Amino acid sequence: ETGVTQTPRHLVMGMTNKKSLKCEQHLGHNAMYWYKQSAKKPLELMFVYNFKEQTENNSVPSRFSPECPNSSHLFLHLHTLQPEDSALYLCASSPNTGGFADTQYFGPGTRLTVL
Amino acid sequence: GESVGLHLPTLSVQEGDNSIINCAYSNSASDYFIWYKQESGKGPQFIIDIRSNMDKRQGQRVTVLLNKTVKHLSLQIAATQPGDSAVYFCAEISSGSARQLTFGSGTQLTVLP
Questions:
Q1: Poorest-confidence range of A14-28, A94-108, B40-54?
Q2: Under an 8 Å CB criterion, which residues of B touch A?
Q3: A101 contacts in B (CB within 8 Å)?
Q4: pLDDT of res. A102
């Protein structure tokens, strides 16, 4: 195991639902990341948090709302999603953002299906 | 635009043979490269990295080669084992004040018995 856990592992939701994805890292890292992984597409960086502060938002629609209450926990709040948002959502952590030069440790992901 | 891509989407090798997975990148400003392995149902796992001031780096059974002249990166796996079956993808980090992380789309490696 990588020391990064994600819950739930699978989620099915309707377009009008509100749900949240949770990520927790037990590695003492300072940076956390959300990624979207769609079939046959490269991994897409969504958000970066460093010491609980958001340092990157890669033009992600507002229906995705991240929250980082502390360096060990990261949430992704979802509301009014679209079917094209169905994907594997991966969380990662690293010691520091360090210009992405740190090794990132990934969680197993949440498989999201939007109906 | 700049992109990171893989030459082959799938690769099948016999158990015990060596595997070579290739990656082309187009951003000449990239100075750091990483290879990840992603097994089915799991998140990506760091394998090996290399900085642009090097052209070769070796790990346990894996070697990464960097050819900056043709902007090419490869991952060599020695004595491929069934547990090596996974999707492998590369990532590049561009240098400068606004560093950017870009991932390739991946190559599915299948190890045949």
A1: A94-108
A2: 4, 32, 34, 41-46, 49, 89, 91, 93, 99, 101-106
A3: 32, 93, 99
A4: 75
Q: Cis check for the bond before A8: say yes or no (omega within 30 of 0).
A: yes
Q: Which of B3, B30, B101, B105 to mutate to test the interface with A (most CBs of A within 10 A)?
A: B101
Burial class (CB in 10 A: 0-12, 13-18, 19+), A65: middle
Q: Residue B7: pLDDT above 50?
A: no
Cβ(B18)–Cβ(B69) below 8 Å: no
Q: Write the pLDDT tens digit of every residue in A105-115.
A: 999 999 999 99
Backbone dihedral region for residue B26 (phi beyond 0: left; psi -120 to 50: alpha; all else: beta): alpha
Whether pLDDT at B81 is above 90? yes
pLDDT tens track for A75-97? 999 999 999 999 999 999 999 87
User: Residue B28, Cβ neighbours under 10 Å: how many?
Assistant: 12
CB contact under 8 A, A106 and B44: yes
